[in-house]
C-alpha cells in the first residue's frame, strides 16, 4: 500500500464526518504513518491492508483530539496484540512534539501498572532524542517520576497510572485540576491503555460486613447494631432480590474517615476496603446475590472517572471480545474504530477438559502438575511459558511443576494470572501452557455488567443470560491476553507467528467455542493425559481402524457398515454415536483417515493421501 493510499485510509476512518482535517492534520497523519512503515520494515513486520486501515484510524482519532475536532466520545482501537497499537502511539507522540502547529497541545497517557509506565517510557525514548520538556511521569514512585521532566505541567506528554486518575479526581472534573494540565489548559490528546470501565464494581459479602462489627463497637454501639441489621437482612435475602442500606453518616454522624482511623494503619487492608465499600453503599438500594449457603454478597458499583474524561482513545486488544464495551456503545459513550482481526492459522491449541480453578489444583494438584511437566518434556529443547494461579498458603504452583521435571534442564518461564497482560517479556517463547484458568464470582460478573451498563439495582435485575455473556467475554479476554504473551503475539503478515498452546479448562464454561472465536484459524485438539484411553464403541472403532490402516494399501477404502459390524454396532448407531464423537474424529485425524464417498453422502474411510 503506497503513502497516498494510507493517507486516504486515515482520512476515511471511523471518526465523525463533521471532523474537518486541515493541512497540519494531514501532514501529521502522513508523517506518523511513514515513520511506522519505516520501523515496521526494519523489524520485518508487514501488517495487512486491513490492519493499516485500522492503524490509520488510531492515528486519525488522536489527530482529531489534537485539533479539537472531537469533544465527548471514547474511541476504541481493538487491534490484536502484536499488530502495532503501541508503536503507533509512540510514533504519533514523537511527531506531535515536533509539530510547530501543535506546541500547545498536551498529551495524557494512562497506563495500568507502574511496570507498564517504565516500559512505556523506555519504549518511547528508544531511538528518539527527546527534548527535556517533552515528557513527564506522575506516579507514586519517585524513581519513575525521575525519568521525566520534574514539573509535569511543563511537559507536553504526561504519563501516569489509571489508578492515580481515579484516586485524585474521585469523579471530579479533569478540566478543573491543574495536575493534568499543560500550559494552563486540559491536555487534548488522551489515551487509555488496556481495560477501560467508567467505574469499579462493588461486591461486599456478609463475612466482610461481620468483620467490621468489632471496630464499630468502639465507635458507636448503635451504629454497630445498625450494621448488624444489614448483615442479618442480607443473610436472609433471596438470591437476586434487593435491600436498602441505611445512610450511616446521616443516621449516626459517623463518616468513613472516622471508621478508617479506628481500624488504624496496622489494621488489615481488607477491613479498610470493606468499610469503604459499606459506606459507599450507604443510602443505596443494592442487589443481593447468594453464591453459597453461608454468605450473601451486596452488589453495586462506584463511578470513579472524571465525567469530562472524553475525548479519549482506548487501546484494548480485548475490545473485540468483551461484552462491557458493547454496553458502553449502547449508552452512546463509545465509538469503535475499524478492526482487523489477526489470523491464528499457525497456532495449535491443545485442551484438557479438566477443571483448572484453585479448588481443582487443591484436589488434583499432583496429577495436574505432573501433566504440565510431562507436556513441557515433550519438547525439552524449546522455550516454554507457563501461566499459573498465584501461590497461596496451600501451594507454590511454579515450584510444584519444576519438581516434576525429573532433573531435565528445560527453559521454562513462569508468570501468574494477574500478571499475564501488557508484557512482551515472553514473546520469544513458542509454547505456552495455561495451567488453570481465571474466573470471577457471580457477584463480580454482575458488578461488571452494572458498571458498564450504568444499571443500579432499582433499574432492574441482571439476568442469567447477561451474566453468561459477561462471563464468556471476560474469559475470552483472559485467553487472548494470556496466549499472546508468547510468540503468537508476533505478526507474520495478517497471521501470527507459529506457536503451541496447552490449556487446562472445564468445557462446561463454553470453552471450545470461545477458542475458535478468539483465535480464528487456530487448530484445536484435545489434550490426552498420561494413561488416558478411549473406551466403549469409540475405542473399539479406533482400535479396529488403526489395525486396518497399518496394513491398508494407499488406495484402500473401508465402508462405514463394515466398521460398524466389526465393533458390534448397527450402522445407525455407528452413524449417530461414533462418527460425530469428538474423540473419534480426532483419532481419525491422527491416523490420517478421512471420510469419503459422494458429494452429499459419505460412506467409507480412506487414507488421507488418497484424497
Textual characterization of the structure:
The protein is of the alpha/beta class and 611 residues long. It is 41% helix and 18% strand. The protein contains 23 helices and 24 strands. The chain has a seven-stranded parallel beta sheet. A six-stranded parallel beta sheet has the order 16-15-17-20-14-21, sandwiched between helices. A hairpin with a 2-residue loop joins strand 5 (181-182) and strand 6 (185-186). The protein is globular and about 85 Å long. The relative contact order is 0.10. Mean pLDDT is 89; it is low at 1-25.
Primary descriptors:
611 residues; alpha/beta; six-stranded parallel sheet; 41% helix; disordered N terminus
Please tell me what the overall shape is: globular
Number of beta-strand segments? 24
The major beta sheet can be summarized as:
7 strands, parallel
Mean residue pLDDT: 89
Contiguous runs where pLDDT drops below 50 for at least 5 residues: 1-25
| Beta-strand residue fraction | 15-25%
Widest sheet: strand ordering: 3-4-2-7-12-1-13
Number of helices: 23
Structural class by secondary-structure content: alpha/beta
- Distance from first to last alpha carbon: 38 Å
Q: Please compute the radius of gyration using only Cα atoms.
A: 28 Å
Q: Percent range for helical residues? A: 40-55%
Task: Briefly summarize what is shown.
With 611 residues, the chain is α/β, with parallel strands linked by helices. The chain contains 23 helices and 24 strands.
